[in-house]
Amino acid sequence: MKYISEYRDPELVDRYLKEIHTITTRPWNIMEVCGGQTHSLVKNGIIRLLPDNINMIHGPGCPVCVTPLHLIDKAVFLAMEKGVILCSFGDMLRVPGSKYSLLEAKARGADVRILYSPLESVKLARDNPDKEIVFLQLASRPPHLLMRFQ
Q1: Which is nearest to 36 in space by CA: 19, 52, 59?
Q2: pLDDT of 11-54, one tens digit each?
Q3: First to last CA, the chain
Q4: pLDDT tens digit string along 109-126?
Q5: How many CB atoms lie within 10 A of CB 88?
Q6: Beta sheet of 145-149, edge-to-edge order
Q7: Where among 25, 40, 59 does a domain terminate?
Q8: Are 62 and 38 in contact, with CB atoms under 8 Å apart?
């Protein structure tokens, strides 16, 4: 598979590292934003191989990476309530909770919807006055927000 075996070739890795050492003539600060990137860099020892003048800054993590399990569980619980429409951005639907993700809750009958803006939940509330609308908004840092409209 392309881009898998290439990165397991010690000679190629050595060549890339030499090139990185050559071009970094002054200090560099590089932030990896995603927790998955940080995990890969640390797990595979890549950070230790970089020149001393490259400073890797571990960023905030995206909401998918940094959302605590208990918040996913709360969102799934709310989604499973009768009369509730739970809305979120699409990237949150596959984040696993302790039992289910929001996508699995949807498969089990919960009314879970993907929105592109929190403002869409206001229109959804107007169009569904008999339902409680919950918008799951997670930020990379607290506060996390569950907005409920009735």
Answers
A1: 59
A2: 888 999 999 999 999 999 998 877 778 878 888 888 999 999 99
A3: 51
A4: 999 999 988 889 999 999
A5: 24
A6: 111-114, 84-88, 132-137, 145-149
A7: 59
A8: no
